[in-house]
Specification:
Blueprint lengths: L1 H10 L2 E7 L6 E10 L5 E6 L3 H8 L2 E7 L12 E10 L3 H10 L12 E16 L2 E6 H4 L7 H17 L1 H11 L8 E6 L2 E6 L2 E6 L7 H17 L1
Antiparallel strand pairs: 1-2, 1-4, 2-3, 3-6, 4-5, 5-6, 6-7, 8-9, 9-10
Helix pairs in contact: 5-6, 6-7
Length: 233
């Protein structure tokens, strides 16, 4: 189940963010979009003009509600996550890069002085899988231990650029044949130890590896294997 929850966290990109009102402590929620780091930590781009960041400056506790049920006939039967933690600023270039790859339109305003990149450092997660399926998980249950995957993180930007620029046909095959999705113009936006993220306009998708990878060479072998698999479909 831990893997399933992390997969849902990674494949999502839109969430409701809840903070505590700086004036009276009441709950306040707003819409946001997010990406995830290689370990599954949510990455946010927030503006100081927003009420939720003003609230976080006073009390950095927050939660994200991520659901995969909005398109169902009976949404309450679908899975959703509530991710609780504390929001902290990040100065890491790869956090910004992963966010902008996931949400390229944000590049139009990401350099404005009032915007910054933040992480929601997970403390616990509440998973609801439908009626009668609900459980709390600790950070250690959900976070992926990527201590041995530093090489992959360093190589990620180059791998993504190479695949999009030189192997766009393979990217389309992954999405269309292995994920069963339609449309042209899919782009790879990220690769982490557990899978690949894709985007086509406002639609996102994720392809999960059979087993985790940790290096650029692992990625090369897995991408070749997936391409061969897709051609057989």
């Amino acid at each position: 189940m831990h893997q399933r929850i992390r997969d849902q966290l990674r494949v999502g990109h839109v969430a409701a963010i809840a903070t505590l009102d700086r004036d009276n402590g009441d709950p306040y929620s707003a819409l946001t979009v997010y990406a995830t780091d290689h370990d599954g930590t949510p990455i946010l781009l927030l503006t100081g003009l927003s009420d939720h960041l003003k609230n976080l400056d006073r009390d950095n506790r927050a939660s994200l509600l991520i659901d995969a049920a909005r398109d169902l006939e009976h949404p309450m039967t679908g899975p959703r996550l509530t991710v609780q933690g504390r929001v902290v600023a990040s100065g890491e270039a790869h956090h910004r890069a992963r966010y902008l790859a996931r949400h390229p339109a944000a590049a139009q305003y990401a350099d404005f002085g009032d915007f910054g990149v933040y992480l929601l450092q997970i403390e616990r997660v509440h998973y609801v899988g439908g009626f009668g399926v609900a459980k709390w998980f600790a950070r250690s249950d959900i976070r992926y231990d990527n201590a041995n995957a530093a090489e992959l993180l360093t190589a990620e930007v180059g791998i993504v650029a190479h695949m999009n620029e030189d192997h766009g046909d393979a990217v389309q095959l992954y999405v269309q044949k292995l994920l069963g999705l339609t449309g042209e113009g899919w782009q790879m936006t990220g690769i982490d130890p557990e899978g690949i993220d894709f985007r086509n306009c406002g639609e996102v998708a994720r392809l999960i590896f059979e087993s985790p990878i940790s290096s650029a060479e692992d990625a090369r072998k897995e991408l070749i294997r997936l391409s061969q698999q897709a051609k057989k479909c």
